[in-house]
Amino acid sequence: MATVMKEVDIVFVGVGWGSSLVAKELVNTGLKMVGLERGFPRFTSPDFQSPEIHDELRFAVRKGMMQDNVREAITLRHSSDETALPVRRWGAFLPGTNLGGSGVHWNGQMFRFQVKDFVWKTAMVERYGKSFVDALGLTIQDWGLTYDEVEPYYDKFEYLCGASGKAGNIKGKIQPGGNPFEGPRSREYPTPPLKEQYNGALFRKAANDLGYHPYPQPSVNLSVAYTNPDGLKLNACVYCGFCERFACEHYAKASPQTVTLPILLRSPNFELRTQCQVARINVDSSGKKATGVTYYDAAGQEVFQPASLVILSMFPLNNVRMLLLSKIGKPYDPETGTGVVGRNYTYQTTSNVWSFFDQDINMNPFMGSGAIGTMIDDLSGDNFDHGPYGFIGGAYVLAAWTGGRPVEQNPLPPGTPKWGKGWKDAVRKHYGHVGQILCHGTSMPTRENYLDLDPTYRDAWGLPLLRMTFDFPENDVKMIRLVTDRSTEIAKAMPGSRQVSNRIYGERPFDVSVYQSTHNCGGAIMGTDPSTSVVNKYQQSWDIPNLFSLGASSFPHNGTYNYTNTLMALNLFTVDAIRNRYLKKPGPLV
Amino acid sequence: MKKLTTVLIPGAIFVSLSMFVMGQNSRGPDDYVGNPERGAKIAAWGTSKGVASCSSCHGYDGVGNGTSLVPRLAGQSSFYLTHQLELYANGKRHNVYMTNFAQRLSPQERADVSAYYASLQSSFPPPAKELTPAQFERGRQLATVGDDKLTVQSCNNCHGPRGLGEPPSIPALHGQYSNYIVYRLQQLAAAHEDDDLMSPVAAALSPEDMQAIAAYFEQLGITDAQHSGGQKVANSLPH
Questions:
Q1: What is the pLDDT of residue A196?
Q2: Searching chain A, which residue's CA lies closest to the CA of residue B161?
Q3: Interchain CB distance below 8 Å, A44 and B196
Q4: What is the ipTM of this complex?
Q5: What is the model's pLDDT at position B239?
Q6: I need a labelling partner for B159 at 20 to 30 A (CA). Which of A334, A484, A553, B86 fits?
Q7: Under a CB-based contact definition with an 8 Å cutoff, are residues B61 and B140 in contact?
Q8: A49·B153 Cβ contact <8 A
């Protein structure tokens, strides 16, 4: 018999970036809010301090901060005619957990999507024609809102985080030093760009020579100390080289711990409960109203938390799984192409290019930061004419070392032995003398790629695991091959470059054992039509108006860029609608 | 009797802030290789250009004087010392005596005298004030873990285990006079200097917290020297 808690106004499932930002924005409403986090609480001091945090083996190799996939994994297959098997060692993507979620160990790369991303289907048909687009076999669609509607919220989140960068387009006027391709922003970044690495300077020269437009990567590892509009202080990054997969000891990375939780946890209206594993969303007999959620607490006891409003912010894969487990919305069926929950699952299409230099070129890769780097946007998204190529989408090209960690940040030329004297000699020769480029690109939805519940495998609580059916579409493989070729040319043109090698991850079959990106996307997408989307543009469930599903699960496709800034801007867009409209008159916002 | 270096935590990271601490000159502090023998002469006798002997305040042994706010220089990173002299010379740090001396020293002489003091292992005088256990504990907490309520990270993140510093650019605090550490924190809190990393940290500390940290690091030097049986110990990491 479940324990029943006192009813609250809002229950948040998952307390990471999404929930903590939305809840923080609502602390002044006086509403009673509860945040349920399956993991542990943790704070910059004492939990993220050095030297313990700079442990590559524990955090980078053994994924110390990631979701425990002994208790709760996903299953994967490349196509519907295969049997999915559990992913017991995270590789390609690294789902987070614990208070703050992936917002703690992310790299702080802070991009906006393109203007066209929000109206992707319309834009592609307009530029390339209906038959070109139909021939691609993709299930792309418009998002239901425009860049202009979202722009003020991008600005707000960037200023909350103190983003470090150089604007390329302010209100339509192109700015020198920034990205000339970017969508218009209302003002300059709050802090200047991070320092440029030597790797980036060499890339800049080569890119300029080849006619591209290099600019500094936008970052929320801050370049200088900053006080945000809420009065919270962040410090300047010290370029320690332990950013992704690690937490920041210096209060220099924008995260829930530095930007949202200090305010949220001070509020008497918000109660944080950790080690609470939510099992399902409870729905009344009409099927149109959520009554709250059921969870297992730290002692394994079943608890029912009644609430007037349920907000899911569990990371895309978990949001979709929660809707399926709760039997909310029609599950997608790839055979018929009908149903919506699990539809349009997408990922990120990437490659690396490495340049090997002589011993006199010192890259000092250990002077790294999560979002440092010099990059070009010329080959991203729809920034070039795809007519000759027969695919859509693109990738950014970024020269960066986020660190020089000995185990994993140590690329060697192809053919180098994997162990022994030959390997040691190669490391001695090459470490610190290698340039690195990342190509990071769009991911297009197809009828075949989708999410559903696994028929066989279950989690530690006995609930079916999420099943991922995914492989890279031909469209995306063509895209990443082209961008990798162009990036290889740039790498060869870097002064002093002796040998260049590359590795494309966006090839078929998808290799889940090698790290690529944690930008899993879609499955509970937004749109204007309930027969092809799960939520409306406010991320409100079409089926259940007092349920919101926040995050990149709402994206109908994945754009070129790291998606945190975009999903957070959409969450701020949602919060305004909740505060100004929903709370006054609960019900469908569209 | 252990040498102090065996107290080091294996794998202590090297964080170089050289990019931050570079002055506007194209030649940086480590472009001049300091000669400790030449430096010893400057320390003992000053120079013909009107630089008084450093030893008249800092001592020939580099032990300085806590009551007079003259910092200990013995065993400090030579890169750091050279850079501080540069900051005094170009006006980014201000002191009525040091500004004058630093300006009258050539860049080579600054490197030489810094190398001399860096090479010394000198004793640690007893503290001027008694340190209470509560102060020690508070200092130890701030040094090793920080304080989330103040958004202050632990000192040791940058200043190394036991405050031994992270050469070349991050100074040792180990065994430095508590008076001097407090004085320096107050300066950093009051103005945004060349050093954007220390100013926010210093500004977040109350006077009591500054005293606690300072007394803690001063005591570490004394304690470690006692544990080595009164032998002279290094007060910073090798550099």
A1: 97
A2: A51
A3: no
A4: 0.85
A5: 66
A6: B86
A7: no
A8: yes
Confidence check: pLDDT of A429 > 90: yes
Q: Of the ranges A156-165, A386-395, A415-424, B219-228, which one carries the lowest mean pLDDT score?
A: B219-228
Q: Does B130 touch chain A (CB under 8 A)?
A: no
Q: For residue A225, tell me if it sits in a domain.
A: yes
Nearest-CA residue of chain A relative to B10? A51
Interface contact flag, A51 B199, Cβ < 8 Å = no
Q: What global pTM score does this model have?
A: 0.92
Q: How far apart are CA A84 and CA A121, in angstroms?
A: 31
CA–CA separation, B208 vs A510, rounded Å? Answer: 58
- pLDDT value at position B28? 58
Q: What pLDDT score does B226 carry?
A: 86
CB neighbours of A105 closer than 8 A, spacing ≥ 6?
A59, A65, A96, A244, A245, A246, A247
A240 chain-B contacts, CB cut-off 8 A: 13, 15
Rg (C-alpha) for chain A, rounded Å, is: 23
Q: Which of A225, A251, A366 sits opposite B199 (nearest CB)?
A: A225
Give me the pLDDT at residue B6, please.
36
Q: What is the mean pLDDT of chain A?
A: 97
List the single residue in B with minimal CA-CA distance to A366: B15
pLDDT(A2) > 90: no
* Interface contact A44-B16, CB threshold 8 A: no
pLDDT band at B29 (very low <50, low <70, confident <90, very high): low
CA angle A349, A110, A171 (to 5 degrees): 110
| B44 at interface of A, judged by CB pairs closer than 8 A | no
Interchain contact A195–B (C-beta under 8 A): yes
CA dihedral A14, A18, A24, A29 (to 10 degrees): -90
Q: Does B13 touch chain A (CB under 8 A)?
A: yes
Active site residues of A: 519
Whether residue A258 lies within 8 A of chain B, CB to CB, comes out as: yes
Residues 36-75 of A with CB under 8 A from B: 43-46, 49-51, 54
Q: Report if residue A589 sits inside a domain.
A: no
Nearest to B157 among A195, A233, A249 (CB): A249
Q: What is the DSSP letter of A193?
A: P
Please report whether residue A587 resides in a domain: no
Are A45 and B147 inside 8 Å of each other by CB? yes
8 Å CB contact between A379 and A560: no
User: Stretch A554-577: mean pLDDT, rounded?
Assistant: 98
CATH number at residue A379: 3.50.50.60
Please report whether residue A472 resides in a domain: yes
* Region A518-529 average pLDDT: 98
**All structural domains of chain B:** 30-118 (1.10.760.10), 133-227 (1.10.760.10)
Distance CA A317, CA A92 (A): 14
pLDDT (average), residues A302-330:
98
Q: Which domain holds residue A392?
A: 3-48+59-582
CB contact at 8 A, B209 and B146: no
Tens of pLDDT, residue by residue over A23-75, are 999 999 999 999 999 999 999 999 999 999 999 999 999 999 999 999 999 99
What total of structural domains would you count in chain A? 1
